[in-house]
Structures are given as structure tokens and as C-alpha cells.
Amino acid sequence: MDFRDSPQEAAFRAEARAFLEAHAPEKIPGYGHEDFDEQQVVAQARQWQRTLFEHGWASIIWPKEYGGRGLGPIEQIIWNQELARIGIGESLFLQGTGLAGPTIIAHGSEEQKTRFLEPILGAEEIWCQLFSEPGAGSDLANVAARAEKSGDAWVISGQKTWCSGASYSDWGMLLARSDPKLPKHKGITYFLIDMHSPGVEVQSMRQLDGGEHFSEVFLNEIRVPDANRLGPEGAGWSVARTTLMNERMTIGGLERLFSFGLLLDHAKANRQRVDDVMRDELGRVYTWTKALELLNARVVTKLGRGVIPNAEASVMKIAIARMITKAGDIGLRLSGPEAMLRRGEWQNQFLLAPSIHIGGGTDEIQKNICGERVLGLPREPSSDREVPFDKLPRS
Ligand SMILES: Cc1cc2nc3c(=O)[nH]c(=O)nc-3n(C[C@H](O)[C@H](O)[C@H](O)COP(=O)(O)OP(=O)(O)OC[C@H]3O[C@@H](n4cnc5c(N)ncnc54)[C@H](O)[C@@H]3O)c2cc1C
User: pLDDT tens-digit profile of 129-183?
Assistant: First the structure.
């Protein structure tokens, strides 16, 4: 394992840092908290994305022909580290640049690439993901939203849930069932839907931290042109795997979610509350941080050798969620009575922590992956893989 940047990586880091120092805004407000002003946050995110686009930094890994820098995952990690270093967190454009764009590049027609890719990088269109449903989360292949062919269009009805950013998105990546007579993984088709189409109804959901980060989306007989089908009819599951694989690469990123230095500063500022037990807990969080940094270095080293990491992403996701929960708990206790009186960094972290255990695949699902790929345990039995979807029992 090599912890140092190679000469090329060091040069890339220096170039990225110089650009960010010259152009990055002082603060890009996050979203999801109760004081979130949607219009203002969207406008600022758009402005920053435009700056990135104009200077050629809108995507590190998209091929050059589509407006990216055409670099690899190591440069993406270095870029993420440099963003985190100056406190720039997740972008509202991430679902477009990180999920929709790479899926369209992999599976889209030339017309779709021409229509959709530049508006994503150029900050014109924001995307959301319409995959989960009340009965399809961990078992995503269970999607029941129905797509029926009607001439050169599809009529789609159903209910999607937990859709991050749907209230301000222009386009959505949608999975719908086009053939219920086939087994559940086989009768799904992937669509790109215009969120402003008649029949799309977005209802915001209030979450634990008071924000309205995600929404339920009701599709009431919306018409989607066949030209907006991504990949062949019935091949939605394999197209969705591209989106999910890219999602796994955008989640994680310890440096974006947690800084031990901030927790330590908080402890130093509230020394009167740091007893032996607290000191022990801080030590444990520090040890986890270091272990995760090493795991991250292992992933980067593997990527550098052209090897796709296997279960490391699952191990990292479980550990990051656990650590953020612990750090939020310590941060709140260090704040003392203040924690109950007003909102702040540690209150937000404490309230955000439960969602990290769920989004992008729950802890239990990650543990299943580790069980199979690390411990070599048998695959989880699934008796319904070959049963036609319309014969499956439904609640
Ligand atoms: C912050 C956040 C953002 C999200 N954004 C989006 C988005 O933009 N678009 C979108 O489509 N979805 C989004 N989601 C939804 C997310 O993908 C699902 O919540 C997640 O996949 C879990 O599905 P579920 O909530 O239906 O829980 P379920 O799958 O119903 O799980 C319920 C419980 O059962 C356990 N469980 C389920 N199956 C197994 C199993 N096989 N083995 C062991 N335990 C199991 C789970 O671990 C969990 O504890 C988001 C979620 C969060 C928290």
C-alpha cells in the first residue's frame, strides 16, 4: 500500500487546489436542514456548477468528448479530498453528474447523449432518482410502478418514495414495470422522465432534522416518449445496476461527511465536559478514523493497479455510519445544555446520522454483501427469482 501521491497525482492535486483557491465560493450552503431556503441554495449551487463547467472541472471522470476531464477514479478521489479540505460538500448536481450522466454515457443513444449530457454539466438541468417505492427498497427489483406502451409513448403510473431533491429537479431516472408476466428482474424498463410533465405530483416529506430533503413522487398516467427509454425494453435492471454502481462510488467519502479535527476542537472548547469516559470514546473515534483512512488508501491503491475494489465499499459504509453516529452523540454531549437550546453543527450531525445507516443500501444489506464476499458464506436464498412478477404475493 502506498500512501503518497505519484508525481502525476501530485501535479493533479496542485492544479485542483490552485483552481479551488482561485474560484471556490466561501460557502456552498448544504440542504436538508430546517433553515434551508430552497430557491437560494439551488441558485448558489447552479452558479458554482456553472463556474466548474466554464473552467473544465464539471466532471473529473466523464470522457473528454462529453465535457469531462477524462481522468480516473484516483483523480476523482483527490478532487473530493480537495473539495472537502475547503469545506465544499455534496452538490445538488451530484445525481446528474454522478448517476444519470454515467448511465446515459453507458447505455444512451447518440440522440440521448446530445440532448441530456451537456445540460447536466452546464448547470441547466438538475436530476433526481425515482427508484424506491413503498414496497421496493432493499429489494429494488420489486418495483411496481406500471409502464404501458401506447403508440410511440409509454403511460406510467405509480408511487415513488424517498426521492432526494425531487422538488427542484427537472429530470428523473425512473424504473417501471413494463411486463408483469416476467420474473421481477426481467420485466423492468428504465426511463428518463421530465419532472415538469403533466401528472407528476411531488409531495415533500419532513425528516428528522426538520428539513424536506426528499419527496414522494406520484405518477398519474404520465406520458413518456419512447425516445426517453434508456436501454432496451425489459433491460431496466441491468441499466439500473450502472446507476447503482456509480451511486456506491459517490457515497462514502469520509472526508466529506466527518472531520475528527472539528470534533477535537469542540472537545477542547468544552474541556469541562471531557471526563475519562469521554476521552476514551474520543480515542476510539480517532482510531476508527485512522483505520478508515487506511482502508481508503487500500481502495485507492487497488484502483491505481486497475483492480475494482470488492467488499471494501460495504465495510467502509458500515464503519462510516457507525462513526458518524458516535461522533454526533459525543458532539451533542460536549455541547451540554446548549444542545437543547439551538440548532448547530452537532445537532445537525446527530439528526443526520440515522439516514447514513439507510441511504445507498442499509447496514444489514452491506453486512450481507460482506458475509458473501469476505466470509464466503452462501448467497441469501431467494425463492422468487424465477416467479412471474404478477404471481408474487403482494401486501
Ligand atoms: C438519505 C436518504 C436518501 C435517499 N435518496 C433516495 C433517492 O434519491 N431515490 C431513491 O429512489 N431512493 C432513495 N432513498 C431510499 C433508499 O434507497 C432506501 O431507503 C433503502 O434502499 C432501504 O429501503 P427501505 O427504506 O424500503 O427499507 P427496507 O428495504 O424495507 O428495509 C427495512 C429493514 O429491513 C432490513 N432488510 C431488508 N432486506 C433485508 C435483507 N435481505 N437482509 C437483512 N435485512 C434486510 C433493512 O436493512 C431495514 O433495516 C434514500 C434513503 C435515504 C435514507
Answer: 999 999 999 999 999 999 999 999 999 999 999 999 999 999 999 999 999 999 9
- The answer to pTM > 0.85 is yes
156 three-class SS: strand
Pocket test for ligand 1, best of 131, 162, 204 (most atoms within 8 A of CB): 162
Q: HSE, CB side, 13 Å, CA atoms: give it for residue 118.
A: 6
Is residue 32 predicted with pLDDT exceeding 50?
no
- DSSP letter (8 states) at residue 288: H
Q: Pocket of ligand 1, candidates 167, 318, 362: which has the most ligand atoms within 8 Å of its Cβ, to mutate?
A: 362
What spacing in Å lies between the alpha carbon of 328 and ligand 1's midpoint?
Answer: 22
Q: Which residues pair with 164 in a beta bridge?
A: 214
Residue with cell 401506447: 150
3-state helix, strand, coil split of the chain in percent (to 5) is 50, 15, 35
What is the identity of the amino acid at 137?
G
Q: Report the nearest atom of ligand 1 relative to the CA of 136.
A: 26
Q: What is the DSSP letter of 95?
A: I
Q: Which domains does the chain have, with CATH numbers?
A: 7-121 (1.10.540.10), 127-234 (2.40.110.10), 251-373 (1.20.140.10)
Q: How far is the CA of 14 from the centre of ligand 1 (A)?
A: 39
For the CA of 368, the nearest atom of ligand 1: 42
| Alpha-carbon span 314 to 7, nearest angstrom | 30
The pLDDT tens digits for 115-130 are 999 999 999 999 999 9
CB atoms within 10 A of CB 13: 16
Q: Which atom of ligand 1 is nearest to the CA of 138?
A: 29
Diameter over CA atoms, the chain:
72
- Of 252, 261, 257, 259, nearest to 299 by C-alpha is 252
Cβ(292)–Cβ(326) under 8 Å?
A: no
Positions marked active-site: 247
Q: Which residues line ligand 1 (CB under 6 A)?
A: 128-132, 137-138, 162-164, 214, 355, 358-359, 361-362, 364-365, 368, 380
170 in Cβ contact with 126 (< 8 Å): yes
CB count in 10 Å sphere of residue 113: 15
Q: Buried (b) or exposed (e) across 43-66, using 16+ Cβ within 10 A?
A: ebbbebbebbbeeebbbbbbeeeb
